[in-house]
Design a protein that fits this description.
The complex is a heterodimer of chains A (121) and B (226). By secondary structure, chain A is of the alpha+beta class. Chain A has 2 helices and 6 strands; from the N terminus they run αβαβββββ. Chain A has one domain: hypothetical protein PF0899 fold, CATH 3.30.2320. In chain A, the strands form 2 sheets. In chain A, strands 2-1-6 form a 3-stranded mixed beta sheet, covered by helices on one side. In chain A, helix 1 crosses helix 2. The longest helix of chain A has 19 residues. The two termini of chain A are 31 Å apart. In chain A, 34% of the residues are buried. The mean pLDDT of chain B is 95. Chain B has 9 helices and 8 strands. The chains are: A alpha+beta (121), B alpha/beta (226). The interface between A and B is large, with 37 and 36 residues. Strand 6 of chain A pairs antiparallel with strand 1 of chain B, so a sheet runs across the interface.
């Protein structure tokens, strides 16, 4: 295993894909839909690389990874306003547009790492 | 054909983490997951803690390293039980490894289980090991902006130890900057300034361990956030 956790994540994705393909009696896989939170700690290019390395040479070597980055949504520690979602604003600490509080926000969205769909038949 | 699935990628690890919890629950064993960069002093902290609290608690350590059993041997020299996991290049421990390690530990009467993760501030944060708390360790020989650069760990940890404070006269580390940033990210974070080399500041850490152990024993400890 290379020293990057994206390989472990790619392996987990493949395990779930195999499981779903079997359960749904599918054989052909064209795409894997993945939702990846801005705070999930996953580097998308690295994950893409690891997944293609695992798929290479197998029956699903041509499957696309349809990766959607789920933007960060924070609930302000100071006033409770939910904000965020702009790309490039991926910090857990950023000023609330309502009251200016920078810290202590709760993550409402942005930690997800989940398979949303398979394009399969 | 597009087939909706909606499955958490790390679900397999999370299920195994529940199995780890199920193994530790009957004895109400406090499990702490130690996370830091390489060289911040995790093993030295454990050597000190195990030696100083050996009369008070039964403790065991699961040591995660890419290679070698050097750390497990250091820890075992204190008389505590230690199990080494070699990840062979893997950058983090996961719950499957913890479950295997538990098979090689005597959990009977155990008070505290320390999990010394692989030295890395990113990957170990993603993988639940069934712990009650993540502990962040940061040494003043590193940058004081680590909490700014790796906010997720400092946001999730229940305690942060700033280690090697005996080196402060020789480095540019701004304790207040690291401390303020981390505690603003995480209002519940307990912070201890320590030197595992000379023992300075460790009493506060030991008090915290006692309180955590007590809370675990009484079933008052809330779940570690993910």
């Amino acid at each position: 295993m290379p020293p990057m956790h994206e390989m472990a994540i790619a392996q987990s994705i493949l395990d779930i894909v195999r499981d779903e393909m079997t359960a749904r009696h599918c054989t052909r896989l064209d795409g894997i839909g993945l939702e990846c939170g801005a705070l999930s700690g996953v580097e998308p290019e690295s994950l893409r690389f690891c997944l293609s390395a695992l798929l290479d040479g197998g029956p699903w070597a041509d499957a696309r990874l349809e990766l959607r980055i789920v933007p960060l949504r924070l609930r302000c520690f100071g006033c409770g306003t939910v904000f965020g979602g702009e790309s490039g604003q991926d910090a857990l600490w950023q000023p609330c547009p309502q009251c200016g509080e920078q810290f202590g926000h709760t993550v409402e969205q942005g930690k997800e790492l989940r398979i949303s769909h398979l394009d399969a038949s | 054909m597009q087939i909706p699935v909606v499955r958490n990628v790390l679900e397999a690890n999370e299920k195994l983490a529940e199995q780890v919890r199920a193994r530790l629950d009957p004895g109400r064993i406090l499990a702490l997951n130690l996370i830091s960069s390489p060289g911040a002093g995790k093993t030295t902290l454990l050597e000190r803690t195990l030696a100083d609290l050996s009369g008070e608690f039964r403790m065991a350590v699961i040591e995660g390293d890419l290679q070698t059993d050097n750390d497990a041997r250091r820890v075992a020299a204190t008389g505590a039980q230690a199990v080494q996991i070699n990840t062979e290049g893997g950058c983090h421990l996961n719950s499957s490894m913890i479950l295997q390690a538990l098979d090689n530990l005597d959990l009977d009467g155990l008070d505290i289980l320390f999990i010394e993760n692989v030295g890395n501030l990113v990957c170990p944060v993603e993988f639940d090991c069934g712990e009650d708390a993540k502990i962040a360790l940061l040494s003043v020989a590193e940058g004081d902006d680590k909490p700014e650069k790796y906010p997720l760990l400092f946001n999730l940890a229940r305690a942060m130890l700033l280690n090697k404070i005996d080196l402060l006269p020789h480095v540019d580390f701004d304790v207040r900057r690291a401390r303020d940033f981390a505690t603003r990210l995480n209002h519940d974070l307990a912070v201890f300034e320590v030197s595992c080399r000379n023992g300075q500041g460790l009493d506060g850490w030991y008090e915290w361990l006692r309180a955590m152990r007590q809370a675990r024993r009484q079933g008052r400890l809330s779940r570690q956030e993910r």
